[in-house]
Specification:
The complex is a heterodimer of chains A (712) and B (155). Chain A is of the alpha+beta class. Helix content of chain A is 45%, strand content 20%. Chain A has a six-stranded mixed β-sheet with strand order 14-18-19-17-16-15. A five-stranded mixed β-sheet of chain A has the order 6-8-9-11-10. A five-stranded mixed β-sheet of chain A has the order 20-12-13-22-21, with no helix packed on it. In chain A, 35% of the residues are buried. The C terminus of chain A is likely disordered. Chain B has 155 residues and is an alpha+beta fold. A six-stranded mixed β-sheet of chain B has the order 8-1-2-11-10-9. In chain B, strands 3-6-7-5-4 form a five-stranded mixed β-sheet. In chain B, strand 10 and strand 11 form a beta hairpin. The radius of gyration of chain B is 16 Å and the shape is globular. The chains are: A alpha+beta (712), B alpha+beta (155). Chains A and B meet through helix 13, strand 21 and strand 22 of A and strand 4, strand 5 and strand 7 of B.
C-alpha cells in the first residue's frame, strides 16, 4: 500500500477536526445567529472537507458538502437569515456530513437517501435567496457506486483463500482482509491448517494456511475481488456463489488479526486438531461476537485496510515538553561546568570526564529530539502534486509541476499547518493564475503551464514559493472587482503592489463566477491568516504576462539554528550564521564617512553601508570609533549587502529557537529568542528585517532617528 | 461601581499582597503561578519603559513588567530582595516585579471598597478597588488592564 493510503488517513484525521469545528461553530450560532466568525468558521470547515473529499474522489461527500456550503455562503453574505429552523437544518447537515465522512472512511456506500433529502431542503432554502453555484454533476457517479449495494437480495458467497508463502513478506495480514469483508454482510472464516508443517520445520515468515470464507450479504463478485485487490499477486482466490464448501468443515473458528501464524504453529503440535479448534472457539466466544455484522464503532476503525507501519503518532505537546526539558538539561550541564571551573576541581579527571560524557549524551538527546520535529517537506510536496493533478483535470489546463528543495527540513507543526494554505495557493495558481491552453499559445507560450513549488532555508527562515508562469495578476480586473465589492473606493489611487494585496482581503474572489475548484475566495485571506498564525508572511510578486510568485516566509519555530553569539552594548545576541557572509575587523582606511552619520565600508571593491546593531535596537548611539568593533558582512540574494556593527563575537553554536510571541509579541528586527548556557535569554536577530529597513532607506533613517532620540 | 459591589454575595477571596514603591497592592491568588527571586533580565528593543525585559522560566521566554513604572511610581532599581510574581492572564505568562510579597490574605468580597472618585484616571485604570486591613490600605490591581495596555501600546 502506498502513500495514497497515508494521505487518505490523514485526510480523515483532518476531517475529524473539521467536523468538530463545524459542530463548535453551529453551537455558537445557535446562541448568536449573527456571529460572523462562527459562520465563517463553519463555512471554511465544510469547504475544506469538500476540497479534501474532491481530491480523493469521494463524490457523494463533495456533492453534499457543496450544497451545505452554498447555504452557509448565503448566510455569510447576508442573503439568508439564520433563524432557528435553519440552524436546526444545519445541525442535521453537520450530522449527515459526519455520517458521510465515516461512510467514506469505511469505503462503504453512503446513506444517499438522507443526503438527498437534506440537499433538497438546502436547495429549498437557498434557491430563492442565493445565486446558486453550479451544482456539481456528481449524482450519477454516486448512483453507480451504489448500484451494487442496492440489491436487496442477500446472497451467499464462498471463497477459498490460499496464500502464497510470501504473503507475510509483502506486509499483508489476512485477518484484516477478512474483517474488511464484514461491510458486505455476515462473515465466517475457517482456517485450513493441514499444510502447516510441524513446529521444527515451521518458518514464521511464510504462510502455509488457507482459509474458507463464507459470506452472507449484499455483494457482487467484483466487490469481493476488490477487497482482495492488494493481495492479488500473492494469493489464490476462488469465489463461488452459494457453494457448499463450509459445511464440510469442522466448525467455524474465528478470525483474530495478528494471531494467526502463532496459533497455527501451536496447532501443528496438537494431536487432535479438531478438539483444539473446538476448544479455541469456546474459549474465544467473546471474539466470535465481535465478528457479528458490522455496526459498532470498533468495527469501523478496523475496516479500512490497515497499512503496516513502524511510525507512531505522538502528541506534539509531549515532544515540546521533552525539548524544553532537554534544553534545561543542557543549560544545567553548562552551569555545572562553569561552577566546576570556579571551584578548581576541573582537574579531577574522573569528574570532568564523567561530565564530558553527560554533556555528549545530553547533546545527542537534544539532537535526537529536535530531529523528531524537523521533517522534510517532501511528503507535503507529494500531496501537492496530487492537488495539481486534480486541479489540472478539473480546469482542463495541462500543468507541469516542478518541486525544488523537497529535502528542506521544516518543523512538523509548520508542515502540517502549511497543507491547507498551500492547497489553496496551488489551486488558485492553476484556476486563476494559469491561462487556458489557447490563450497560452496565443501569447507565444507553451500549451502546458508550469507550477513551481520550492522550499529553502534562508537567514534562519523557511521560504516557500508557489510560482506560476501564467498571465500574472490582472490588476485592472482586481481593482474593478475590489471597487465593486466595496473594498476600496473608486477614486483611491493604488500602487500595483497595493492592488496585488487586495487579493488577500477577506471575501475577495478574483473570478466572477463561483468555481467548484478554488471556491469563493475563502482561499487567500485564509492563507494569509494561517501563515500569520505561524509567525510568517506572504508576499505576491507579479509581472503582467509573466506569471505570479506567492512567497511564504516562515520562522523556523522550534527548529535549531546555527548562530553566532555576539555582544552588543552589554547585551548578548545571536545572529543567524546563514546571513553572515564574513566577519571583518575594520581599519580606518576601509571606512568612509557619507553625510553626517552615514558610514560605508569598502569590501571586495564594493561600498557597503554600515549599521550599528545596538543603535538599530535603540540601546545606544552609533559608536564613533569602529576600529575596535567587529563588522559582520550580511547578505542574502534578495537585497543589498550591509555590515552590522557588534562589539565582539563570543561563540558560534546551535541554539534552540524560543518564541517571543507566546508571552510577549513580535519585535521588529528580532526573529525569536534563545536560552544560552548560563540560563539567560538572548535575542536572535532577524537579518532580513534589518535589510528591508535598509532597502526602504527612509524607514531606516526614521528608525535611526527614533533610536537616537531614545538613546539621547 | 458601588452597586456592583453591593450585589456581590459575601464570598471569600484569596489575594496575594505585595509592596510596590512602598505601597501595598494585591490581586487574586488564582492568577499567581509562582514567586521567584529577581534574576537579571534580557532587555527588549523598542519596548515600553515598564517592560524590564525577558527571563527564562524553565525554557519559556517570559516578559517582566516593572509594576512601579507601570503604575507611574518611577522605575524600580531591582536588587536581590525583589521578587518576580509569575502570573498567567489570558493564556500569557507574565512576570510582575515587586519589592516584596507580604502576605496571602483571605478577605470577604464585601470588604472591598470602590476607589473614591477624587483619584485621577490613570490610577483608576489599574486599580479595581481598595481593601482596608487594620491600619493599611491594600490596592487591588486589575491585571487584565495592566497586561492589555502592554499589548496595545506595543502593537
Amino acid at each position: 500500500m502506498t502513500g495514497r493510503e497515508d494521505f487518505r488517513s490523514s485526510f480523515f484525521e483532518e476531517c475529524e477536526e473539521l467536523l468538530e469545528a463545524t459542530q463548535d461553530g453551529l453551537d455558537v450560532l445557535a446562541d448568536d445567529p449573527h456571529d460572523s466568525d462562527a459562520i465563517n468558521g463553519v463555512f471554511r470547515a465544510v469547504h475544506s472537507i469538500k476540497g479534501g473529499a474532491g481530491a480523493f474522489g469521494l463524490d457523494a461527500l463533495v456533492a453534499f458538502a457543496h450544497a451545505f456550503e452554498s447555504a452557509l455562503d448565503g448566510v455569510r453574505s447576508g442573503a439568508l437569515d439564520l433563524d432557528d429552523g435553519l440552524v436546526d437544518l444545519f445541525r442535521h447537515c453537520g450530522d449527515n456530513l459526519s455520517d458521510l465522512v465515516s461512510a467514506a472512511r469505511e469505503g462503504a456506500s453512503d446513506d444517499i437517501e438522507a443526503s438527498a433529502h437534506l440537499k433538497e431542503r438546502l436547495r429549498e432554502v437557498t434557491v430563492d435567496h442565493v445565486e446558486d453555484a453550479p451544482d456539481p454533476q456528481f449524482e450519477p457517479v454516486t448512483l453507480l457506486i451504489d448500484a451494487g449495494g442496492h440489491d436487496e437480495t442477500l446472497s451467499r458467497w464462498d471463497m477459498e483463500f490460499t496464500a502464497n508463502p510470501d504473503l507475510f513478506a509483502s506486509g499483508n495480514e489476512p485477518g484484516v482482509l477478512f474483517a474488511a469483508l464484514e461491510r458486505f454482510g455476515e462473515v465466517s472464516v475457517v482456517a485450513d491448517i493441514q499444510a502447516v508443517p510441524p513446529l521444527t520445520d515451521l518458518s514464521p515468515l511464510s504462510c502455509t494456511i488457507s482459509w474458507q470464507i463464507a459470506l452472507f450479504g449484499q455483494a457482487t463478485e467484483e466487490d469481493l475481488r476488490q477487497a482482495f485487490e492488494f493481495v492479488e499477486d500473492v494469493c489464490e482466490l476462488r469465489i463461488s456463489k452459494s457453494g457448499d464448501v463450509i459445511d464440510q468443515l469442522v466448525q467455524p473458528s474465528n478470525v483474530q488479526p495478528g494471531s494467526l501464524p502463532e496459533d497455527s504453529a501451536t496447532d501443528a503440535l496438537m494431536p487432535d486438531l479438531q478438539d483444539f479448534v473446538a476448544e479455541l472457539s469456546d474459549g474465544d466466544a467473546a471474539t466470535d461476537a465481535a465478528l457479528a455484522p458490522v455496526s459498532s464503532d470498533e468495527d469501523k476503525k478496523t475496516a479500512p485496510p490497515a497499512r503496516a507501519t513502524s511510525t507512531i503518532r505522538v502528541d506534539l505537546e509531549r515532544i515540546d515538553k521533552l525539548i524544553n526539558l532537554v534544553g534545561e538539561l543542557v543549560i544545567k550541564e553548562a552551569m555545572l561546568t562553569q561552577t566546576m571551573a570556579t571551584l578548581d576541581i576541573a582537574r579531577m579527571s574522573e569528574v570532568s570526564s564523567a561530565l564530558d560524557s553527560v554533556k555528549q549524551i545530553a547533546g545527542e538527546i537534544q539532537e535526537g529530539v529536535m530531529a523528531i520535529r524537523a521533517q522534510p517537506v517532501k511528503p507535503m510536496f507529494q500531496r501537492m502534486a496530487r492537488i495539481v493533478r486534480e486541479a489540472s483535470a478539473a480546469t482542463g489546463k495541462p500543468v507541469r509541476f516542478v518541486t525544488i528543495g523537497d529535502t528542506t527540513e521544516v518543523d512538523k507543526t509548520v508542515i502540517e499547518r502549511l497543507v491547507d494554505p498551500l492547497t489553496h495557493m496551488i489551486r488558485n495558481a492553476i484556476d486563476h493564475g494559469l491561462e487556458t491552453p489557447e490563450e497560452r499559445v496565443a501569447a507565444g507560450k507553451t500549451e502546458e503551464g508550469t507550477i513551481t513549488l520550492s522550499a529553502a532555508h534562508k537567514s534562519g527562515r523557511v521560504l516557500i514559493d508557489v510560482v506560476d508562469d501564467g498571465g500574472g495578476i490582472n490588476r485592472d480586473a482586481v481593482r474593478a472587482l475590489a471597487v465593486k465589492r466595496g473594498l476600496v473606493a473608486e477614486q483611491d489611487s493604488l500602487t500595483p503592489a497595493e492592488i496585488d494585496n487586495l487579493l488577500f482581503m477577506p471575501g475577495f474572489s478574483s473570478k466572477e463566477e463561483v468555481s467548484e475548484l478554488s471556491g469563493r475566495g475563502v482561499g487567500l485571506d485564509v492563507v494569509r491568516s494561517e501563515i500569520q498564525k505561524l509567525g510568517g508572511r506572504v508576499a505576491i510578486q507579479s509581472d503582467p504576462g509573466e506569471g505570479a510568485t506567492f512567497s511564504i516566509s516562515l520562522p523556523l519555530t522550534l527548529a535549531v539554528l546555527e548562530g553566532m553569539v555576539v555582544d552588543v552594548s552589554g547585551e548578548t545576541m545571536v545572529v543567524p550564521i546563514s546571513a553572515v557572509q564574513e566577519t571583518v575587523r575594520p581599519t580606518g582606511a576601509d571606512l568612509h564617512q557619507l553625510g553626517i552619520d552615514g558610514v560605508l565600508l569598502r569590501n571586495r571593491d564594493e561600498m557597503v553601508p554600515v549599521i550599528d546593531l545596538g543603535a538599530f535596537f535603540g540601546f545606544r548611539c552609533p559608536p564613533q570609533q569602529l576600529e575596535d568593533h567587529v563588522l559582520l558582512l550580511m547578505s542574502n540574494d534578495q537585497g543589498p549587502r550591509y555590515a552590522l556593527v557588534v562589539d565582539d563575537i563570543q561563540d558560534q553554536r546551535q541554539v534552540v529557537i524560543k518564541s517571543l510571541e507566546t508571552n510577549y509579541q513580535q519585535i521588529n528586527g528580532v526573529a525569536a529568542a534563545t536560552i544560552l548556557g548560563d540560563g539567560r535569554i538572548a535575542l536572535i536577530i532577524d537579518a532580513d528585517t534589518i535589510m528591508r529597513a535598509l532597502s526602504a532607506g527612509g524607514q531606516l533613517d526614521a528608525a535611526l532617528d527614533k533610536t537616537f532620540r531614545r538613546a539621547g | 461601581m458601588s452597586e456592583a459591589i453591593l450585589e456581590q454575595t459575601a464570598r471569600d477571596l484569596e489575594v496575594v499582597a505585595f509592596r510596590v514603591a512602598g505601597q501595598d497592592y494585591c490581586f487574586d491568588l488564582g492568577s499567581v503561578r509562582e514567586i521567584r527571586g529577581w534574576t537579571t533580565t534580557t532587555a527588549l528593543p523598542h519596548a515600553q519603559p515598564y517592560v524590564k525585559g525577558v527571563i527564562n522560566l524553565r525554557g519559556a521566554v517570559v516578559p517582566v513588567i516593572d509594576l512601579s513604572e507601570r503604575l507611574g511610581l518611577g522605575a524600580a532599581e531591582p536588587g536581590a530582595r525583589h521578587v518576580i510574581i509569575i502570573t498567567v492572564i489570558n493564556d500569557q505568562t507574565v512576570g510582575l516585579l515587586a519589592e516584596v510579597v507580604s502576605d496571602i490574605l483571605t478577605v470577604a468580597e464585601r470588604d472591598l471598597q470602590p476607589i473614591p472618585d477624587v483619584v485621577d484616571e490613570t490610577v483608576r485604570r489599574f486599580i479595581s478597588g481598595v481593601l482596608v486591613k487594620e491600619d493599611t490600605m491594600i490596592r487591588r490591581l486589575d491585571l487584565v488592564t495592566i497586561l492589555d495596555q502592554q499589548q496595545r501600546h506595543a502593537a
